[in-house]
Amino acid sequence: MNRSTLPELIAELQKAFAGFLGMDPAEVNPDMSIKELGMDSLTAVELAIEIEERLGVSLFLNDFTGRETIAGLAASFLAERVA
Amino acid sequence: MELISVLPAHAPARDLERVLGDPFDPEAPISFRSLVRHDEREEPPSEAFEKLRAGGVHAQLVPRAMGGRLTSFEELLALVRVLSRRDLVLTTGLGSTMLAAIPVWAWGNDDQRRQVAHMLLGAGAFGSFAVSEREAGSDFLATTTRAEAAGGGYLLTGEKWLIGNASRCSFIVALVRMQPALSLLFIRPDQLPAGTLRRLPKIRTLGLRGHDMGGMSFEDCPLPASALLGRAGRGMEMALTTLQYTRTMIGGMALGAADTALRLALGWGRDRRLYGKPIVDIPAVRSLLLGSFIDILIAECVTTITARALTLAPRRTSLWAAVTKYLVPNLSERVVRDSSVVLSARSYLREGIADGIFQKIARDVAITSIFEGTQLVQLSMIASQLAQLMRVGRRDGERVDLDRLCDLGTPAPAWDPSSTGLRVADPGGDELVERWFARPDSSEEDVEAGPRAADALRSLRDQATALRRTLAKIPTPNDLSLARRHCVLHAAACCLEVWRTSRYVLAPEAAGGEWLALSLERLAFGDSAPAGADLEGTVCAWMYGQLDRGELFSIIPFELAE
């Protein structure tokens, strides 16, 4: 995962979220807030652990507001990797 | 009389019980008389803690691999019950220590583990799990205590409030905000520069008056890099997982308090004569006492199974510990309330029966539904996980072996802190509810438990069907009554499964299933459960038998100290 591009990372996150939301990955809109997608903070914590285990991407929901989007999370992960 | 056999998981509790003596005896090593005196003075029961130290209780908090005697949580649960039937102040002090020790056992490094093992085994030290803050309540993400990187270590600033053992703890595990996210820090107050940690005054409370409830304030408090506990940024996950252990043990605290409450009410009810007969012969009084006994048995089945699941089905306990923490304090508080109705004016006195311990229990037990996540917190965690299960169904391939999980004759395996197997959420399923309530009506087992049990089961299955339909329509159930209804089904399934799997170790009076029928009726119909004489007489006789023989109120015979 460490060298994946933004679209690749978004696609992987869509897949992981889809698994938790009981949706088809294509239905998971990366620009929609994760709360609107049906994610609550407890499930999000569990999801972050699974994403880390599966993809090696460490998501930290320090200030889970529900307003985060998959596209936003992917972009901030890549930005941190560059930094 | 033949000595009753003891389950291996109950052996340490039985030994401790004998060391502590009969609390009703004012001369016992730990007596209700002395505990009430400490409560009146709002002082910790120091001599009692000293006796527990001398009795080696602290070793029960340390895993065997680190030199202690902690094996399974089933075993610990039995210890918690016998201590809590004396005083919740004792188990709250030890429980707060355990809360701080668990993350060290599970995620700490060798040095941190060695330090905590040494402090517990050597001095019987107290620990503090410093999570809550004045403005954060149960919202971990609102944590403001902050650790900044400084000089190769950290600089900690902030205030923790409503913290158990705050003024007497020798080690602290604190949830703090730092890079990259909430983390846990391991803190030794004795190694800090003067003035950087200030312990706040004792907070005065309704119950647990002898508990060391307070807070701590850190001001530019320097900590070495080695203070980090587990991975940086995963503090919330570790804290949420730790709470699954202690929330289950709170079931044992509530059960211990309920036991003494019912013991007092039963003893009093039999001695007290009004209108020419003992008041236990008044149907309304008898029904309150019998209902309380049934509540204890239900709560015992639920708590025991979750305690066993912590090492036999760890993935499920994100759901089951929340169910236990919701149900068991509720049931136990009802036992205390109904016992107070029987005791009537005596329940209000700070003297008299057992030196007035009842009013203390009534105040103390109220904490069990509040601390470590209130009832609303538990229900919303349950609701979140049920919604998740409805959305995606079973995600893990593993199935829980219910036969093994619920066979109380076979001890649960020892805890392996290096691989807990617990999850924060996403329990994968609830086989107990699925096994009993996902199938159409009537089965062999229904018939075996008798017609009244079968009627109650039918009603519970209808309730389960209705619940599934409602859940299927609402992806995120904000309606917490759905979570509540799941808890009732889970409790019924625990009773059924214990009876099905463990009849051979239950008290002889339990094997006929009368208690099961009454439990199912109580869960299915609540206050409008039918009243008859066929089952009630048998269960009442069993309850009195346990009182007379000096046994814990329990489906498994457990002899108390004389």
Largest sheet of chain B: 4 strands, mixed
Order of helices and strands of chain B: HHHHHHEEEEEEEEHEEHHHHHHHHHHH
**CATH topology type of chain A:** Non-ribosomal Peptide Synthetase Peptidyl Carrier Protein, Chain A
Oligomer: heterodimer
Mean pLDDT of chain B: 94
**What's the end-to-end separation of chain A, in Å?**
16 Å
Task: Kindly report the name of the CATH homologous superfamily of chain A.
Answer: ACP-like
What percentage of residues of chain B falls in helices of 4 or more residues?
A: 40-55%
Helicity range of the residues of chain A?
40-55%
The computed structural class of chain A is mainly alpha
Q: At the fourth CATH level, what is the homologous superfamily of the largest domain in chain B?
A: Butyryl-CoA Dehydrogenase, subunit A, domain 3
The main sheet of chain A comes to:
none
Q: How many structural units, i.e. domains of chain A?
A: 1
How large is the share of residues in beta strands of chain B?
5-15%
Features of this protein?
heterodimer; A: mainly alpha; Non-ribosomal Peptide Synthetase Peptidyl Carrier Protein, Chain A; 53% helix; B: 562 residues; alpha+beta; Butyryl-CoA Dehydrogenase, subunit A, domain 2; Butyryl-CoA Dehydrogenase, subunit A, domain 3; 3 domains; 18 helices
What does this structure look like?
The complex is a heterodimer of chains A (83) and B (562). Chain A is mostly helical and 83 residues long. Chain A has a single domain, classed as Non-ribosomal Peptide Synthetase Peptidyl Carrier Protein, Chain A. The two termini of chain A are 16 Å apart. Chain B is an alpha+beta fold and 562 residues long. Chain B has 3 domains: 117 residues, Butyryl-Coa Dehydrogenase, subunit A, domain 1, CATH 1.10.540.10; 102 residues, Butyryl-CoA Dehydrogenase, subunit A, domain 2, CATH 2.40.110.10; 313 residues, Butyryl-CoA Dehydrogenase, subunit A, domain 3 (Up-down Bundle), CATH 1.20.140.10. Chain B is built from 18 helices and 10 strands. Chain B has a 4-stranded mixed sheet, with helices on one face. In chain B, α4 packs across α7. The radius of gyration of chain B is 23 Å and the shape is globular. Chain B starts with 10 loop residues before the first helix and ends in a 13-residue tail after the last helix.
